[in-house]
Design goal:
Number of helices: 9
Helix content: 55-70%
Strand content: under 5%
Distance between the termini: 78 Å
Number of strands: 0
Radius of gyration: 21 Å
Largest sheet: none
Number of domains: 2
Structural class: mainly alpha
């Protein structure tokens, strides 16, 4: 009778895995992709570079996993009215922008787009497009008129957060309502 084979080596420590992802997200947000180093991530996570390299082939692989694991609150999939749904999606977007260094990470990924387009594509797929699709759906369900260009409206609404961030100090708490009201005023 033979015993089942066991995997060689020690099992991975989930706490260390999380510490690595947290340290990498912090480094990416603070320093950007180009200045981020595996050595600094390992030191911040309390591990070694060889331990890091056992998990990730290179910095791009690490950043891809960081983007895939960004802890964002999922957007709401429904609300009592289409306008309330659109507002809830924008409020969720605003909340997520505050919860992580999303703007800094996005800036870093944009700077690296020529060398690592897959990282920006992953950010778009994981973070941006699910929200855009839900917002497009909420707008489509609303009474905005047949001539409303949903793609333009979606881009304007989400783009207003980015524009506010780069032109003025901070995004105010009431920004989601103010932005939505510009294209979809409250009735009654």
């Amino acid at each position: 009778m033979s015993s089942p084979q066991t995997k060689a080596g020690r099992p991975r420590n989930p706490a260390l895995d999380q510490a690595i992802l947290t340290a990498a997200a912090d480094q990416l947000g603070e320093l950007g992709y180009a200045r981020m180093s595996l050595e600094a991530v390992a030191a911040a996570a309390g591990t070694t570079v060889p331990s890091l390299r056992r998990r990730f082939r290179n910095k791009a692989d690490l950043v891809a996993v960081v983007i895939g694991s960004l802890r964002v609150e999922e957007p709401p999939t429904e609300a009592p009215t289409p306008r309330a749904h659109a507002l809830a999606i924008l409020e969720n977007f605003h909340s997520n922008l505050r919860a992580m260094p999303a703007m800094a990470i996005l800036g870093s990924l944009l700077a690296e787009e020529a060398r690592h387009p897959e990282l920006l594509d992953l950010f778009k797929t994981r973070i941006v497009e699910p929200r855009r699709e839900l917002l497009r759906g909420a707008l489509a369900a609303g009474e905005l008129g047949e001539s409303a260009d949903l793609d333009v409206l979606t881009s304007m609404l989400i783009g207003a957060f980015y524009a506010r961030y780069v032109t003025v100090d901070g995004i105010p708490d009431d920004w989601p309502e103010r932005v939505l009201s510009a294209v979809w005023p409250r009735s009654g």
